[in-house]
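Here is a complete protein record:
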Amino acid sequence: MSKAANLEIRRLRKHYLVDGGALTVLDDIDLSIRPGEFIAIVGASGCGKSTLLRLIIGLDNDYEGDILLDGRRISDTGLDRGIVFQEHRLFPWLTVRKNIETGLLNNTRLSPEEKEKSVREHIELVDLQGFENAWPHQLSGGMSQRVAIARALVNRPEVLLLDEPFGALDAFTRHFLQDELLRISAEEGITMVLVTHDIEEAIYLADRVVVMQPRPGRIKRVVEVDLPRPRRRDSREFAHLESDLLADFAGERAA
């Protein structure tokens, strides 16, 4: 099982230089994420959701404020964080097994035998036994995303970041993989942070939903999803919460 982490974001501010001036993308972001918690971040385009993930993963260290992982300030990428994007980004010249192995290239803690064991365990975790030697072009979109999830988890990170991971998939596959993600979350006990445009997906998966507003990106509110699991999308409580959150987006469009 992966070690879950406590993630603290304090007074976070991020801007880019545009036409000689500072364009603020994120402003005064404060958020505490408990170990093992599943957080969904939603908001209109341009509110800085994906920028926030880039800062947490360490792809950009030019920011004000603090992002702390178990008290350590994040300033670079590391094996303690994994990420899955909307596009699976598999290497077409590598098999499923070899694609997952690439996640271990910078891991000097594990012996070759331990790496092989971890790859095998994560192929089983995403239920791809029998496809170890398949090529990416032989996989469905959903299977490719499961490989991407296994690759992100193979180092047993403390935090898994998910940037619209199911956005390009059909509804049936998306629902199936949402359930798979919940199963993996329960089995691994890992802290998960999901960015999504899909309000229904956020409610179905998350313990809390963070609603962001754009220009610049700020947290508008944080909503506890106090619904029993497994959650029913057709329940009155689910529909009420979905309607409440959708009203935030209607307000943004009206503004």
